[in-house]
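Researcher: We plan to redesign the surface later, but first we want a full-length starting point. Tokens attached.
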């Protein structure tokens, strides 16, 4: 049995258990409503959930750009400059160890209870792991690649875009996956704490009145967002595989050139 088939069987088994355990009374409906009742609750209030989903998607999209885009850029700069890396990495690592959720009341004071505070909180929540992952990946790059780029007169922006980020793409994508997932978590959690819109707000509101089907309908939407994001990252990995192939070819070419230069110098 292939791994893909086994994964599909596990997913189908979980779906069947989700439907049957509450139906058979083995798990109280208050703790886990059946899948059919969860889907019915979401369908009956599709308009409300659709509006909340649009709010959450907007906040997630803006936070992704700020957190992942900024994290990859800053991580590439910090990782490629040794002095800046020695200065910044210990500070960023220490900051990442702090549970940032305790700072959310500060964001509410600064930005209010609207989307701005959620975007600011989620952006910082996802920025740090993306930056750390990118900076760590930069340190694994073959120095010969950077030396060849500098010898050909490449500027720092050109080295970042054409050499550094492509060469570190596996680690960059790992940081992107973690940072993006934390962005979604940050937005939903902030909506659950203090908000008047979004999926997190609906989950928190229905939780207070013990309406489990509506709570799990919101949870399903959050799960759907994470699945779509993970599929998007996998698509980027497939598209970026040509960069990794090109980087390996460049390393081999640099090695051949270096080997050929040794006898000449001798």
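Model: Full-length starting sequence:
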């Amino acid at each position: 049995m292939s791994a893909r088939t086994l994964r599909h069987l596990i997913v189908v088994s979980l779906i069947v258990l989700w439907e049957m355990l509450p139906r058979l009374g083995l798990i109280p409906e208050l703790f886990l409503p059946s899948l059919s009742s969860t889907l019915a609750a979401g369908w009956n209030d599709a308009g409300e959930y659709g509006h909340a989903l649009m709010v959450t998607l907007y906040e997630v999209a803006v936070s992704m750009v700020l957190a992942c885009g900024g994290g990859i850029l800053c991580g590439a700069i910090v990782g490629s400059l040794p002095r800046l890396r020695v200065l910044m990495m210990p500070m960023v690592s220490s900051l990442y160890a702090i549970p940032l959720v305790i700072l959310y009341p500060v964001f509410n004071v600064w930005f209010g209870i609207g989307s701005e505070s959620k975007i600011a909180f989620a952006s910082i929540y996802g920025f740090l792991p993306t930056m750390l992952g990118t900076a760590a990946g930069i340190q694994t790059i073959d120095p010969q690649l950077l030396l060849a780029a500098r010898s050909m007169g490449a500027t720092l922006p050109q080295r970042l875009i054409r050499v550094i980020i492509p060469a570190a793409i596996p680690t960059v994508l790992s940081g992107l996956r973690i940072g993006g997932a934390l962005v979604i978590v940050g937005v939903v959690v902030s909506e659950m704490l203090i908000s008047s819109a979004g999926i997190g707000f609906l989950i928190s509101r229905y939780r207070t009145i013990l309406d489990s089907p509506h709570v799990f309908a919101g949870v399903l939407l959050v799960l759907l967002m994470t699945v779509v994001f993970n599929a998007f990252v996998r698509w980027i990995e497939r598209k970026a595989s040509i960069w990794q192939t090109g980087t390996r070819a460049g390393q081999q070419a640099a090695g051949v050139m270096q080997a050929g230069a040794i006898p000449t110098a001798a």
